[in-house]
Amino acid sequence: MGLTFEKNKIYEMPVFFGPSPDPKNPRPDGTILNKPADVEAATVMFETDASMLEALLPDGFSLAEPVLSVAQCEFKHIGNFAGNSYTLINISVPARFDGERDHLRGDLVLAMYENHAEPIIGGRELLGYSKIYADIPRLAEHDGIVRGQASDWGFKFLDLRLDLNRQPEDGEYMSRITGESEAKFNYKYIQACPEKGQKPWEAAVDASYPVANPTIGWEAPEGYPYTLAEPRRQPCAGTVEFHAPTGEDMPMSWWIPAYLAKLPIKRYVGASHAFYTDPADYTRIYRLR
């Protein structure tokens, strides 16, 4: 007997070796247990040109605030990845979604850079996250200064800096933006393979729709064996700088940081340095309607 697909099972390419392991699929007893991760996050927010952000929004979304948020996050000791760690940089804007069914406020992820393939593949295929690869070293901290960066093919396209010795420029505004968010928004898009005789750009689209990952209302399931640490967050000042690459610098993704580098920094809203435990539970993600 050749390959057969089991019903109600998640598969990922390559599919030939069977369904994905837990926690992507339930354990033999039918339960799912997502194991948490320790997270360190360095975030900078700045006010920019509203029209340049609005030009990026898909149908159904509206810009809530003309602010770009850049967060470098180290996910450490991730239970779902057998205790391993990776680093991401989340670039997002405060947005509102109003559809036929759903109406909520959240952060639309424009791009999420990560430095390991496994979370990128799963995040793109199963969760609809706008993930892409970058080389991201660990955060460096010295004398109250936290530094982060990202590069690709040897070209550094991002510098991030926190000054823990200074207060945020507009801490109240920053707290309001953060507090009003109900979800992380993403837009899942997968191009179809062309039919015989078609050009790749003439092919249909396999998937094109927005998704939401709620960031509020999570409750530990009955018998949850883990203790989530109390979050620690220090408001501070910070800066971020995008460096525009050329097609030679980053051949397959240069236009992303090139666009971000064009965004004017009208003023910095503030920054934060946070430590928290993420339950790493992605079972609540849903397609927006």
TrEMBL record:
Transmembrane segments: none annotated. It holds the Pfam family ADC. GO terms for molecular function: lyase activity. It comes from the Bacteria. InterPro entries: Acetoacetate_decarboxylase, ADC_dom_sf. This is Acetoacetate decarboxylase. It comes from Olsenella uli (strain ATCC 49627 / DSM 7084 / CCUG 31166 / CIP 109912 / JCM 12494 / LMG 11480 / NCIMB 702895 / VPI D76D-27C).
